[in-house]
Design brief:
The chain is mostly helical. It folds into 2 domains: 2-242, no CATH class; 249-301, no CATH class. Helices cover 57% and strands 6% of the residues. It is built from 13 helices and 6 strands. It is elongated. The two termini are 53 Å apart.
């Protein structure tokens, strides 16, 4: 798509490399707070009421470090699992497109939180908007935090991976080999069930947090259809192209100096030499012209 290509050429250089690792670091900070300063987390949740009426705008970002679950060994395995999926998607789609996918999921989640707050303020028969909001979510800050969190953003990574690599096999419970598209279908069906059976708050959460995957799927699964081996080969090819692009462009055929070792020099091709021979400014007029024998094609100087 030309529109997307123009944006990538203009803003691609600002994309965050290894974004999955950045998210893992955010979780690590959140788990430190959870263990050492658990009371601090209540000031980090994505709470539109506190943002709008108390000016706590830091919540627009700090909710990203709030852990979606408590820390245990299973959490370590899941974080490693999502890190592996995320880095593979980044190599396959490219850093810019992967950034767009994750960041759009974050923005949709924030938008969903404010839409839910607006719905609460307009349609709930409560004079206190904060009370109405807690009626929807429950009566605890932890319930509010578990709603608009990075949990469903992580799930969107899994769904995108299953859509990109449907035939890849994973070891379920480290024992049972199963194609990842089967897990994706099962999880998708579970999400639909949760959406239909949940309350309005849960519906807002699921719809907002997974909107990035919906957009991704509608636009043709990111136009990515390749095996992991093909993705690895493409990444190797890109590195080789990048290495070639950094290679020396100009080299004197007499002294061997280049524009990299001597950037102050100017280099020119000689029109009287047979072939593409380039010379620095010190030898462009003093070198012996290279001529080819008409018979055997050998050089003569």
């Amino acid at each position: 798509m030309k529109f997307q290509g123009d944006f990538e050429r203009k803003f691609g250089k600002y994309a965050i490399k290894n974004l999955s690792l950045v998210l893992i670091i955010c979780y690590a900070c959140g788990y430190v707070f959870q263990i050492l300063y658990p009371g601090l987390l209540r000031y980090l949740y994505l709470n539109p009421y506190e943002i709008l009426f108390h000016g706590q705008i830091w919540r627009l970002l700090t909710w990203l470090i709030v852990p979606p679950s408590r820390f245990d060994f299973f959490t370590l395995l899941m974080l490693y699992f999502y890190y592996s999926l995320g880095t593979t998607l980044e190599r396959t789609w490219g850093t810019y497109r992967y950034n767009v996918y994750i960041l759009s999921g974050i923005l949709f989640t924030i938008l969903g939180a404010f839409l839910l707050f607006g719905y609460t303020a307009v349609f709930q028969n409560e004079t206190d908007v904060r009370t109405a909001l807690y009626i929807l979510w429950g009566t605890s800050d932890s319930r509010l935090a578990s709603g608009f969190s990075t949990y469903y953003i992580n799930m969107s990574i899994f769904l995108a991976f299953a859509s990109t690599y449907p035939n890849m096999q994973v070891m379920l419970f480290f024992l049972l080999p199963i194609r990842i598209k089967i897990l994706g279908i099962i999880y998708g069906a579970l999400l639909v069930y949760q959406f239909l059976m949940g309350g309005i708050a849960d519906q807002f959460v699921i719809a907002a947090s997974l909107m990035n995957f919906v957009v991704f799927f509608i636009t043709g699964r990111g136009k990515v259809h390749m095996t992991p081996r093909q993705a690895r080969r493409r990444e190797q090819f890109r590195r080789e192209v990048k290495k070639t692009a950094k290679a020396t462009r100009h080299k004197c055929a007499v002294c061997g100096r280049t524009d990299e070792t001597n950037p102050e020099l100017q280099f020119r091709y000689c029109s009287k030499c047979d072939g593409n021979y380039e010379y620095c400014e010190d030898h462009i007029f003093t070198h012996t012209h290279v001529k080819m024998n008409a018979g055997d094609g050998k050089e003569q100087r």
